[in-house]
Amino acid sequence: MTKTLTLAILSLLFLIDFPVKVLAETVLERIERTGVINAGARKNAIPFGYEDSHGQWTGYSVEFLKILHRRLEQQLNKPIKLNLQEVTINNRFDVVQGTVDIVCDATSITQQRLDLVDFSVPFFMAGTQFLIKKQDINNIDIGGTLAKVPVAYIPNTTTDQLIRQVYPLANWQPVNNRQEGIEKLKKGEVRAVASDGVLLLGELVKQGGEPKDFILVPEIPMTSELYACILPKNDARWKEFVDTSIAGSENHQLQEKWFELETESFPYIIKSFP
To answer: Which of 23, 55, 120, 143 is most enclosed, with most CB atoms within 10 A?
Structure first.
C-alpha cells in the first residue's frame, strides 16, 4: 500500500513537472510571441557602447545588436521591437538571467562566468595594460613590483582578479569606472590606471585628453581577453542564432568599419597613439 501510494505521488509529480519542462520557452520563442527583443549594452565602454558628442547611443556592440534585430525580423518574418537597455559592470550578469535576452559589451569570457551564463563566440580580443603619463615612463617600472605605486582599478573585473595578483605590492585604488580612474590619473592622485587598453584609450579621448601626453604599457598586453556577448544559460538555439550573426558577412563589415585602422569609426585614431 505504501509503495503504491509512493509511486502514485511520484507519477503525479512527474505529470505536473513534465509539461513545465516541455513548454519552457526558448529566447527565440519568447521573441516571436512577444514581438520584442530585450538587449543590453553599456554607455561607458568606448568603442563598444557609449554616447557620442550628440548624445546618441552608439558603438560597435550597439550596431551589432541592430544587425541581430534585423536578422530576427527576417527569420521570424514579422516586425520585432528592439528594446535596448543600459547595463553596468555590476548588473550585466544578473539581467541576462532575468529581464534581458542578450548583453553585448566589453565582457571577457572566463570559466567562473561560464558557471553563471553562456557566451557567444568571441567578437574581439583585448588585453590589460597600464595607462600612465608619458613623463612617468622612466619612473614606473612595469617589469618590477610596482611597490607602493598607486594604481587605479575597477573591482569585479578580470583586471581585478588577475593583475592584482601579479603586483600584490602595488597600492591598488578601487574606482567605479575608467572615467574616475583617468580623472585621478590626470590629477596625480594615482600614477597608473589598469584596464583593457582599448577601453582606457577610448575613455581618455572622450574626456578630451591628449593621447600624446599618455602611454599604454606594456606594449603587448599582459592578458588576452576574448570579448563575447552574454547569453542566458542552456539555450542552444539562441546561442546558435547569435553565433551565426557574429560569423556573418554583415558583422564582418561592421568590424572593419569600427576596427580597421584605415576606416575605423573610433572617436580617435589608434595609430597616432605611441
So the answer is: 120
- Compute the distance between CA of residue 132 and CA of residue 215 in angstroms, rounded to an integer: 6
φ, ψ of residue 7 in degrees (nearest 5): -60, -40
pTM over 0.90? The answer is: no
The CATH number given to whatever domain includes residue 217 is 3.40.190.10
| Domain around 182 | 128-223
d(CA 71, CA 191): 46
**164 burial level (CB within 10 Å; 0-12, 13-18, 19+):** middle
**Grid coordinates 575613455 are at which residue?**
203
Residues 44 and 109 in one domain: yes
d(CA 97, CA 178): 26
pLDDT digit string, tens, across residues 161-210: 889 999 999 999 999 999 999 999 999 999 999 999 989 988 887 887 77
Residues in the chain: 274
> Are residues 219 and 164 part of one domain?
yes
For 66-81, write each residue's pLDDT tens digit.
999 999 999 999 999 9
Helices 178-187 and 197-206, axial angle in degrees (round to 10)? 70
CA neighbor of 221 nearest in space, from 95, 89, 126: 126
Tell me the C-alpha distance between 96 and 40, whole Å: 8
